[in-house]
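Structural prep section.
Before we set up the soaks we want a predicted structure of the protein with adenosine monophosphate in place, mainly to decide which crystallisation condition to try first. Input record follows.
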Amino acid sequence: MNILILGSGGREHSLAWAVKQNPKCDRLIVAPGNAGIAAIADCADINILDGGAVATFAEENAIDFVIIGPEAPLAAGVADRLRAAGLSVFGPSQAAAQLEASKSFTKAVCDAAGAPTATYAHFTDAAAARDYIRAKGAPIVVKADGLAAGKGVIVAMTMAEALAAIDDMFDGSFGAAGAEVVIEEFMEGEEASFFVLCDGKTILPVGTAQDHKRAFDGDTGPNTGGMGAYSPAPVMTDEISQKALDEIIRPTMAEMAKRGTPFQGVLFCGLMIQNGQPRLVEYNVRFGDPECQCLMMRLGGQILDLLLACAEERLDEVQANWADDHALTIVVAAKGYPGPCAKGTVITGLDIQPSDSFHMVFHAGTAEIDGQITANGGRVLNVTARGGTLAEAHEKAYAMAQMIDWPDGFYRSDIGWRAL
Ligand code: AMP
Ligand code: GLY
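Run finished without errors. Recording the tokens verbatim:
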């Protein structure tokens, strides 16, 4: 079959790498892709936020199946547009993507479903939000309601920080995303991510992971999209996973179906675990980046069968079989990330890397210029390795990272510290 993957990051490189291992995959096109993806698939420069353009491209290229990687096209309704054109699509409808695109929507769904999460209040007015913060005190969490590329959450340890966050959000620092805010109770505990496929009826777990959001070692520095991850997450025992399924995920999926907007795709559940009890931090409606790179390394080519079963509402007929092992990924970012960083700097040392089902350097933000691989974004490479233990995966991944010659890049030296 001919497959189209939408996206251009390390997540999409790992999806393409895994899908391509499945014998069902004939032609693979990734739009827009990057220099690493171009080595294993055709890349097409189309506007992936324009559902009509994607549908036309898919028809012209006899595409049988579309996998949508990032949240922006999902929130823009691209999955709906493609389904309307008769295409088979992996990814939720615009209505179901609200689980990521609106924090107040998700809180209301959790209330209706009885899913444990932080207590909260929702505001469209700055004065009322300030009064609420003064009444509740700190620590407290202030969130822009809409999509803010991972930057719309302020975990305020003092009341002054929380009040300043309100000023920023209503002053337009977060654009339209900040016109509404959710203020939440600060939850303590250990964070982990749980990934499940859902076809509207059946739920199939496909792995757990933990990531590192801060830019620098020791979990210091600014928040980023993620500087590394490992899978599985030790805190996600069978018992906690079962609780998360029974108390949070199943009731949420049932509530979405009841509203007439069933969720079909991958649900990325950010959980906070304390005293054996998981609570929801947030949902995302796509694979995590870089968590996906670890999951794909552990799942391999079977992922295509799972994504197809999900799109065709046949999840009750399939099983996820992953190796009982560990994967770890290190994000190599351009100096300056998550702030402004230079593009076009040359990266070498990639051609001597091992590249097999235990070792992969996924490209997150690269472009090929005059035959050389160059940086083309903040997060640039994802050095990923598998091993029988997390320590082994860690050792292999760091050995690979050291082979990269790129003076303009940096990476954290402590990915996985909590579990190691
Ligand atoms: P989010 O974008 O919702 O994932 O939030 C980013 C990060 O903020 C999360 O990964 C948590 O570390 C933290 N966070 C969000 N909500 C809360 C909360 N209610 N209590 C404590 N930490 C939170
Ligand atoms: N790594 C976190 C995310 O993909 O949102």
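Observations: The first strand starts at residue 3 and ends at 7.
Flagged for discussion at group meeting.
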